[in-house]
Specification:
The chain has 383 residues and is an alpha/beta fold. It contains 15 helices and 12 strands. It folds into 2 domains: 239 residues, Aspartate Aminotransferase, domain 2 (3-Layer(aba) Sandwich); 96 residues, Aspartate Aminotransferase, domain 1 (Alpha-Beta Complex).
Length: 383
């Protein structure tokens, strides 16, 4: 694009013409929120907020420096230890955001000689991370198709190995726009056959998926051998902010030494780390939260079927209702807002063209009555 005011104005007109302009909406407007990632209802939990406030009084509002200068403190150290223990890995490394974690992992572990095979519907941060590696062998497989990933490994991994490179299979654990769980056992088997590494971003699985909330790997009974690098965030089910990468101790040490998005940025505020430690304890002691949100998922899906609402197949708190056209999704979102419910319309390029949708998410903070009210409003707006 040319760097002129006219070019900028033309680009914005094009966005408007395609019904793709994004607009921010202020939170706290009184509407029932059915589009957040606060799956366990911890973002507003007074214990989590109190832990943050107490730590801020003791340690200040910010860390003041990067982890490798003077920003790393005892709260970060304890959080990394507790996260590693929670998910069953030797070591964890805390990043300031999930986006930075994904950029850092691929930047630290992969180079231009390596084969990178990624699910076509991976999160934008994984897509960008793969691009930054600048490998000429950057391939995508059909969404959630482990056989397609295996075929790409069969076809291209030997050549990469002959050139001194390795291979990585990269996937979300739970896909953020569709709510489905990746076929991790089959992907792991394919990766192991070719001495490739499976990297899983489980941002939407940690805390809410699995018998004890340990995520997609627990759901599939997979360990470090099958998934050498596991990424997760704190801003979803744990209700705070930040992210982690976990694996064997030497792998994490190499990421610490090489990940530019870890080395060259200010460390997460210690108060946020303290709040996350509190949330992590709640995840482990209050299993009723996962049970409640799962009961709401079942209630919502049953009610949707009864009302003729065609949902995507998903057993997670992410329940997409695909409407197709952008204007249809926007109109439905606006009608829901008038009825007192916040459900954002998701449009391209976040999702593929022709699949604009309402991305409905359920939380342990919701009540059965609120779910029933949403279903009634959706029937009026979408059927």
């Amino acid at each position: 694009m040319r760097c002129t005011p006219e070019a900028v104005a033309a680009a914005l007109r094009d966005i408007d013409a395609r019904n793709l302009r994004r607009r921010r909406v202020l939170a706290g407007d009184g509407r029932v929120n059915f589009c957040s990632n606060d799956y366990l209802g911890l973002a507003q939990d007074p214990r989590v907020a109190g832990a943050m406030a107490d730590a801020a009084r003791r340690l200040g509002a910010g860390s003041g420096a990067s982890h490798l200068i003077s920003g790393h403190c005892a709260e970060h150290e304890a959080l990394e230890r507790e996260v590693a223990e929670f998910i069953g890995r030797e070591r964890a490394l805390v990043f300031s955001t999930g986006y930075m974690a994904n950029l850092g992992v691929l930047g630290a572990l992969a180079d231009r000689r390596d084969l990178l095979i990624a699910d076509e519907l991976n999160h934008a941060s994984l897509i960008d991370a793969v691009r930054l590696v600048r490998s000429p062998q950057n391939l995508r497989y059909v969404h959630a198709d482990a056989n397609a990933a295996h075929a790409l490994l069969d076809a291209y991994a030997p050549a990469a190995a002959a050139e001194g490179g390795g291979a990585f299979v990269i996937t979300d654990g739970v896909f953020s726009m569709d709510g489905d769980v990746a076929p991790l056992p089959a992907l792991a088997a394919a990766a192991l056959q070719h001495a490739a590494w499976l990297i899983v971003d489980d941002a939407h699985g940690i805390g809410v998926i699995g018998a004890t909330g340990r995520g997609s790997c627990e759901h599939h009974a997979l360990g470090t051998r099958e998934v050498p690098v596991l990424i997760g965030t704190f801003g979803k089910a744990l209700g705070t902010f930040g992210a982690f990468v976990a694996g064997d101790a030497d792998v994490i040490e190499l990421i610490l030494q090489r990940a530019r998005s870890y080395i060259y940025t200010t460390a997460l505020p210690p108060a946020v780390a303290a709040a996350t430690r509190c949330a992590l304890e709640i995840v482990q002691t209050e299993s009723w939260r996962r049970q409640h949100v799962q009961s709401l998922v079942e209630r919502f899906r049953t009610g949707a079927r009864q009302r003729g609402l065609q949902l995507v197949e998903s057993a997670t708190p992410i329940q997409p209702l695909i409407l197709g056209a952008e204007d249809k999704a926007l109109a439905a979102s606006a009608q829901l807002a008038e009825a007192g419910y916040r459900v954002t319309a998701i449009r391209p390029p976040t999702v593929p063209p022709g699949t604009a949708r309402l991305r409905i998410t359920l939380s342990a903070a919701h009540t059965p009555e609120q779910v029933d009210g949403l279903l009634a409003a959706l029937e009026r707006a979408c059927v």
